[in-house]
Amino acid sequence: MARARDPIADLRRIAFLLERANEATYRVRAFRSAAKALAGLPAAELTERAGNGTLTELAGVGDVTARCVAESLAGEEPVYLRRLVATEGSDLDAEATALRAALRGDCHTHSDWSDGGSPIEEMALAAVELGHEYLVLTDHSPRLTVARGLTAERLRRQLDHVAQVNAALPEGFRILTGIEVDILADGSLDQDEDLLARLDVVVGSVHSGLKDERSKMTRRMLKAVANPHLDILGHVTGRMVSSRPAGVTGPGDRGHRARTRAESDFDADAVFAACAEHDTAVEINSRPERQDPPKRLIRRALEAGCRFAIDTDAHAPGQLDWQRFGCERAALCGVPADRVVNTWSAEQLVAWTHDRT
Ligand SMILES: [Zn+2]
Ligand SMILES: [Zn+2]
Prior knowledge:
Largest sheet: 7 strands, parallel
Order of helices and strands: HHHHHHEHEHEHEHEHEHEHH
Distance between the termini: 58 Å
Shape: elongated
Bound molecules: zinc ion
C-alpha cells in the first residue's frame, strides 16, 4: 500500500515549528533525532515496527515520536503536528507582509560549526522550504571562544565544505559565504584580512565590553563601520529584552532563562551617519529576545539614510522564519523595501559587498 504521508517529513516539520515557537531545545532535539534515526531505516521495517510497537526500541525514538510516526503511516496528520499548526503565530499586517514577501534571503545565520544547533545542510534545506534564494552563513570569529568561533583554518575548511554543499542544493538557491566577525575593543575585526575579502558577506558585531563607556564604544563602532570589509553592522545595541514581540505564541518560556541586558551606550547619530557614508547596512535583528535596534533607533538610522538588512540570526532551522518579527518592526518604522539589502538577488547582494571592499 502506498504511503499517504512521509513520517520523516512530519517529524522534521514538528521540529521546525517548535523552533519557530522558541520552544526548549531538548524538545526540538527529540524530533530531530528521531527523524535522523528513522531516515536510515528501510520503509518495510519502519511500517513493521510501527505496526508491532517496536519503534521505541530504536535509539532516539520515544513514545511521542513513535506515536507521530504511526499516525503518519496511517495517513493521518499527527495530532502533535495538528496542535502546533493550530497555535501558530498571528498574521502580520499588510505592510509587514509585503516587506517579508520582498525578502529573498537571510544575511545572518549560524550552523553547528560555531554555536548553532544544526548542520549547514539542514539550515540550507529549511531556507529553501521558506522560499529563500540564498542564505548567508555567518558563523562566529576566533575570539568568541564560548561560541566555538572559527579560526582562519576552520573557516577555510568551511568555505570548501560550503562549495560542496552548494553543488548538491536545488538550482536557484545557494549558500553565500560569510562571517559574524567580532568587533574587537579597538574597533578592528577578528579575522584575517584576506579571508574577509574573500567572503561574500561580512556581518560585524560587538560581543564583548558591551558596557564600554560612551566615547570608547562610539570610537570602536565608527572604526568598524569605516572598515571596507564590513558590510552589515549586527545587533547594534547588544540589548536583550525578556518580553516576546506580538505574534509569538510559543508555549511558554520553559527551558529559557529570562535574560535582559541594557543597550550599549554610544553616539547613535554619529554611528548611523558613518553607516550611511560608508554604505554599511544596519541590521534589524529579528530574534525575539534581541529586537535590536529598538524602533526609535531604526527611525534614526532611516533618517540618516542607512540601508538595512532584516536578518534572523538563526541558530536553528525553525528560527529562519523569525524574519517576520524584524519585518513587523521595520514596517512600523516605515522602512521601505528598497532600503533593505536582502530584497536583492544574490548577484546584486554580492556585487554590492564586493564593490565596497
Ligand atoms: Zn552576535
Ligand atoms: Zn549571530
